[in-house]
Write a structure and sequence with these properties.
The protein has about 170 residues and is an all-alpha fold. α3 runs antiparallel to α4. The longest helix is centred in the C-terminal third of the chain and has 43 residues. It starts with a helix and ends with a helix.
Length: about 170
């Protein structure tokens, strides 16, 4: 019985807490990736440049700072057109979807994850992100409905109280 009650409160906590399994990246890692990308820009091969830019993009879209996430999104969108292989395109699309998820644009996230899944239908990371996004959209809808219902209830209650005072 206690176990079931514990699970119930855990589920409520995770519902309102919005926990996801997408990792965060700290400022030191981002700084290290920026340094690596700057060094690669000075004479490294195209492959090394692309790899360092991908690592920097990963770090930026996983940042807690919205401005870093936006920088990562911009870098990925700029580099998406020159993706050599379907694997590279899949990786960039996934990171772009993470960036949009972090910035709160869930509809765009779902759209990009679907593009990712067209390339690799069984890719677990993309499937997990898609489920996370759909859960987030559902949760926000439920909260929105709850807020609306509460507001309507308060208005109706206020009108009923006013009518009761009149009589």
């Amino acid at each position: 019985m206690e176990n079931q009650i514990g699970k119930f409160f855990d589920s409520i906590g995770s519902f309102f807490g919005g926990g996801d399994n997408i990792p965060w990246c700290d400022r030191d890692t981002i700084a290290s990736c920026e340094k690596e990308a700057a060094e690669a820009a000075n004479g490294a091969s195209d492959e090394v440049k692309n790899e360092s830019i991908m690592r920097l993009s990963w770090a930026l879209v996983h940042s807690r700072k919205p401005e870093d996430v936006q920088r990562g999104i911009a870098m990925l969108e700029a580099s998406l057109a020159n993706s050599g292989s379907p694997l590279q395109k899949r990786e960039k699309l996934y990171l772009l979807a993470v960036g949009y998820y972090r910035s709160g644009d869930y509809a765009r996230t779902r759209q990009i994850v679907d593009q990712c899944l067209e390339i690799a239908p069984d890719w677990r990371q993309a499937l997990t992100l898609k489920k996370t996004v759909e859960d987030k959209i559902t949760k926000e809808g439920v909260i929105g409905i709850g807020i609306t219902a509460t507001a309507v209830g308060l208005i109706v209650g206020g009108i009923a109280a006013a009518l009761a005072r009149k009589n």
